[in-house]
Request: fold
Amino acid sequence: MSRVGRPAAIMASGLVIQLAGGAGCRAPDDALEEDAGAARAFRAGTQGLRLATWNIEWLGSGSKGPPDEERQLANVVQTLQELDADLVAVQEVVSDASFDAVLSALGDRHDGLLAGDGWVRGGSSYSAGEQQVGFIWRRDRLELVDAEVVLQEWDQEFAGRPPLLARFEVDGQPGVERVALTLHAKARADLDAWRRRQAGADALQHLLEGPLRQESVALMGDLNDDIDESIVTGRPSPYADLRDAFRFATLDMSLAGVATMDRGSHTLDHILLTGDWDPSEDADAERVQPAVERFSQTTSDHFPVAVQLAAAGDSQAGSAVGVILNEVLANETGTDPGGEFVELFHAGDGVLDLGGWMLADADRTRHVFEAGVLLAPGDRVVIWGGDASEGGLGLGNSGDAVRLSRPDGTLADEVRYGRGLAEADGVSMVRAVDGDPQALWVSHDTVASGPSSPGWGAGEAMR
Reply:
């Protein structure tokens, strides 16, 4: 299969471009689309996502890397099949034709994207014959929503290879979107290269803490340095601040000295996860040793690094059975933020007094319940922005978090959402199954006829 082509319509929106209607880039035949949809429905409830990153040494160069290109291509396909990952970030792809050949050999279950593809916003940062970064993904799990080359102003620091950002819809769930970033940092063990990697790391941290603060992000790629210590003698890791601010699934590999190249003792290929990619913060990556003869001589001098994530049902930041977040309206009708609301549902046993319980967004506490607010099993309570004890709920329309905490400060439930669940005026986000603490969050209008149903449930809105 050839990689995705230019979408029918693209419109600029904020940091990254949006595809019309949030649809994917391809228009496969009806039978394949129906099959993929059925597979998404099955895999969503039974299997977590598997992510990987791999520097495919000078793929398609013709003069550098493994000398036998035909054998390299065959081995790359075999390695990707063995990885069986739902999303693979790739680096060092030189030839579009070789990349297309790999996708074709993988078959119709896969799509792919390179940073230099003509329709990608900012793709002109990459020229023909340069090392490119990109993604390969399974169509039965992920659907591409948009893509953009970011941090172009830091082109020099990234050695002319600025990161590629792609946004994916997960398992066919409307509004359940996650961001993937891939990069190939400046190589070499000299001081200038170290400084450029450090500057690139600072730019990435500002991106993650700024425009992508409310997003679920997987940063995957060849960082060309370690995160516990640097490959440059006498210098700390250029990614030390990034490592301290975010969770790397590859940290244990670094501490154990697991080499991801065919030489040395450093982990150079890394995976960083935020938000719903790894809500429990316990996913650890591993180096994958493909069953390919003379792998480093015939295929790549880098080994793939992969991480298995929790099943989709477990990936919603959730709660023990009890009081849960059940419906949220972040984008109120009109302009009065008092119209925002959060609905709680008692999914547990026994009558509960909510006195002292707290609602917060990503920044601070927005409401504290007074004593005497009693909930019996199956009861609901709605907190409107205009009634919030701290002057409003303050929910962002481009992404935010809603957190429900007990009086002792422990987290009872949480939902982190992107703009896909808050872009329509007056349309709330709701549990796909009313009152089910394991249900995914979806747009209200996908499960009921009305835009919202505060206090009475999306299921009732269909009657």
